Amino acid sequence: MDKLKSFLIKRLILILIIVVTIELILNAIVNFAFFPLIQMLMGVSGSSALSITNIPYLIWGILTGNNAFIFGSFRTSAALFLILLSIFLLALPVIIGILTYATIVTKQVEILEKERDQERKDFEAQRNLMLSDFAHDLRTPIMTIGGYATAINDGMVKDDAQKKEYLTAIASKSKRMTELITLLFEYVRVGSAGFTLDRKKIDLHAFLTEIIANSYTDLEDAGMEVDINIPEDTFYISADELHLKRVIENLIINIIRHNPSGIKVGFEITKLAGVEFLAVADSGDAITKSEEELFEPFVKGEDSRSQTKGSGLGLSVAKQVMDMHGYEIHLIQPYREYTKAFILKFVDN
């Protein structure tokens, strides 16, 4: 709507400038060409110059016969014709300007309606795809759980070690399903109209240090070298601690899930006046998707589902949370000595 208002205001100003310019030109033509001729036809001396303002009185005088000047019917008709032509020429730019602006408004509204219809169709298509992908991601663990549970229940698994293996797989798949449902709930909740952030003042450096420390063992267990460059001083921001924590944790989880062991992982802060940038970087595989595609729901870094373990919702939720805070998140490839990095921009409180 703001885009439409801006467009219409710009067009209105442009049309007004054009109309005023043409009016000035036509006014000069009428004053220096038509009015002297009208004066000659009416026998008026140059000192009694006609003007736009006294035309109505002149016409009234001609029509009622009260005009002070007596002249023939031909001269009267010619003078009246020139007066009416002058009025028409002076009114024509205004009429054309109004019609032109009305046409622009009509066309722009039609374009806006078409764009809204297309956005609605795209939204419905995206929603259907999201539900289809979510059902696909849930089907595999459900089938695994069902198969293992049936085998145990029917007594097909005799060996205790194998039974324990099946139960471990059931627990793992159940956990995965819980993660998927939690992510979907978070995605819908964050995107809902009634959702608000529970913001408070937090020290970004201490906040990040705690999250990275809690994930340090998982990164080491995945065979990754970790480089941390977080300042020890304070930098306060206004943020929802719970949701911002999930953003950082999701980026770390993605590094572990979608990269081979032996890579280098970096967490570093870059400072500017009143602004800090956190880089969550790694030297693993590059992401083939564009940044715009990557932050869409159920979009993953690789095209094949079999190559990834994520739901494709985490980055979409992260983008939503950062946007709601008024912060930014971007993908940079490459980044310094790393293959890629997610750059998070924070503004001080």
Overview of the structural elements:
This protein has helices at 2-42, 55-64, 73-153, 160-191, 204-221, 241-257, 291-294, 314-325, and strands at residues 199-203, 225-229, 236-240, 264-272, 275-282, 328-332, 340-347. It is of the alpha+beta class and 349 residues long. The protein has 2 domains: 1-195; 199-347, 2-Layer Sandwich (Heat Shock Protein 90). The strands form 2 sheets. Strands 2-4-5-7-6 form a 5-stranded mixed sheet. A two-stranded antiparallel sheet has the order 1-3. It starts with a helix and ends with a strand. Keywords: Kinase, Membrane, Phosphoprotein, Transferase, Transmembrane, Transmembrane helix, Two-component regulatory system. Its main location: membrane. This is histidine kinase.
Task: State the gist of this model.
The chain has 349 residues and is an alpha+beta fold. It has helices at residues 2-42, 55-64, 73-153, 160-191, 204-221, 241-257, 291-294, 314-325; strands at 199-203, 225-229, 236-240, 264-272, 275-282, 328-332, 340-347.
> How many β strands by DSSP?
7
Query: Structural class of the secondary elements?
Result: alpha+beta
Number of helices: 8
Stretches where pLDDT falls below 50 for ≥5 residues? 46-50, 68-72, 303-308
- Spatial arrangement of strands, main beta sheet: 2-4-5-7-6
Number of domains: 2
Protein name: histidine kinase
Main location: membrane
Domain Histidine kinase: 133-331
GO molecular function, one term: phosphoprotein phosphatase activity
